[in-house]
From TrEMBL:
Gene3D superfamilies: Transferase(Phosphotransferase) domain 1. This is Protein kinase domain-containing protein. It comes from the Eukaryota. InterPro entries: Kinase-like_dom_sf, Pkinase_fungal, Prot_kinase_dom. Residues 48-374 form the Protein kinase domain.
Length: 423
């Protein structure tokens, strides 16, 4: 990656600025475009720089196209973001996943495009030992050597902190479930990294849409069982499913792990923020629940999340702004708890069945247990049933498929109530 100007240091960053902004704001990036061309963008604010992610560390910055005079390209005038990451050379680009989604998102599936990032361009730059890449080396440190620098140019999206009301937050989270399910079912892609930073907002024609962003840890479902053990644990620590913190966990990563991650995203947001923009200042002496999850190691998180998902009397305590989330969180936890309980019973049964038998005894039969949905307790259906209502109002369900499922479930309820009354 060429850097036609030396780094500029546009004075000290104000408090809202990401510290990296001061270092790279105002610099230019030139990168290959197609086989012969290059394109140059000017860097604006740094929007995101991850700090607690395993195996990579993307950085996202605002960029603008620098076409001059009469030369105009299809990026001119667009609000763009450049994401730089440092994946291993063999990892599929998120553009490949999104291209597959676009291919499937036609007709009655077109709604999902509102919930997926719009990626305009993706490029990889391989390193050679001689190339002067000091700036990138500084950003990526040790990860730099064995990997490529991957850049994608995408439409700029807005963070959760731009939401104004509790209901907007609820709709965005429900959108994420619908989008995640669609990607799993149709293009058969598992996202695998649900975190607060990967849930973004798109504003279009006065409507806000939840966007499931950042698909660079995603995988094809067809390879779900093939990944080597070292790659099982993906995700962002405070939001990883509880069992993924265990050294005994053998994978595979299932969709219900992502749904559990979404539970933690909601839990942390509504517990630690007094509004989407405002983090609660807890007394520095206290050890407020969840507040330290960003710094804690796997052992601690396994214990703390395990306590939540197993507790029979668990009650969420959201900040007043987010009080509507009490019902969601309680219902999600109840389903998760029942599912985990049944999963553990199932594991005991499998273990018992593997013990040596006394002569003449037949081996016990272990009934099938659906580990994808925790025996049906933590399925997409259960989560959609919980999340399509918020504060006694129906949220928007985008796909025909779920609209039909919900109508049927509702009319069955209504019929059973009506028949009870007639007795
Ligand atoms: Zn341009």
């Amino acid at each position: 990656m060429k850097d036609p100007t030396p780094l500029q240091y546009p004075g000290s960053a104000n408090n809202n600025e990401h510290p990296w902004s001061a270092i790279i704001q105002g610099s230019f990036y030139t990168f290959p475009y197609g086989k012969k061309e290059t394109r140059t963008v000017k860097v604006g604010r740094v929007l995101f720089r991850s700090n607690s992610v395993i195996g990579r560390g993307p950085m996202v910055m605002q960029v603008t196209c620098v076409c001059k005079g009469s030369s105009r390209c299809d990026w001119c005038g667009k609000k763009l973001a450049l994401k730089l990451s440092c994946p291993s050379k063999t990892r599929a680009s998120e553009k490949a996943f999104m291209d597959k989604c676009k291919e499937k998102a036609t007709g009655e599936h077109a709604w999902v495009l509102n919930h997926l990032p719009e990626i305009y361009y993706s490029f990889d730059i391989e390193f050679s030992a001689e190339s002067p890449q000091a700036q990138l080396k500084e950003i990526f440190r040790d990860e730099y050597e064995m990997r490529v620098v991957r850049g994608i140019i995408l439409e700029e999206l807005h963070p959760l902190s731009t939401l104004k009301t509790e209901r907007e937050c609820a709709q965005v989270f429900y959108d994420i479930v619908q989008c995640h399910h669609w990607a799993w079912k149709y293009p058969q892609i598992l996202h695998r990294d649900i975190s607060e930073g990967n849930i973004m907002v798109r504003e279009k024609n006065g409507q806000k849409y939840g966007v499931l962003n950042d698909w660079d840890l995603a995988s094809w479902l067809s390879t779900q069982n093939e990944v080597s053990t070292s790659k099982f644990r993906t995700g962002t620590k405070p939001y990883m499913a509880h069992e993924q913190h265990s050294s005994k966990w053998q994978g595979p990563h299932r969709f219900r792990h992502d749904l559990e991650s979404l539970f933690y995203v909601i839990l942390l947001l509504v517990s630690l923020y007094s509004s989407p923009t405002e983090k609660v200042r807890f007394p520095s002496t206290g050890d407020h629940r969840y507040e330290k999850w960003h710094q804690q190691d796997d052992g601690v998180l396994l214990g703390q999340k395990g306590n939540i998902v197993r507790a029979g009397d668990w009650q969420p305590v959201p900040q007043p702004f987010f009080s509507g989330f009490t019902l969601w969180l309680a219902a999600l936890q109840k389903n998760l708890r029942r599912g985990i309980f049944n999963l553990e019973n199932h594991k005991h049964a499998v273990l018992a069945a593997s013990q040596p038998l006394k002569p003449g005894r037949r081996p016990p039969q272990v009934p099938f247990f659906d580990e994808d949905t925790l025996g049906g307790y933590f399925s997409y259906e259960k989560v959609v049933m919980i999340m399509h209502w918020f504060n006694q109002e129906e949220l928007k369900t985008w796909g025909q498929e779920w609209q039909v499922t919900l109508e049927e479930a509702f009319s069955e309820d209504w019929e059973s109530e009506a028949s009870e009354e007639s007795y």
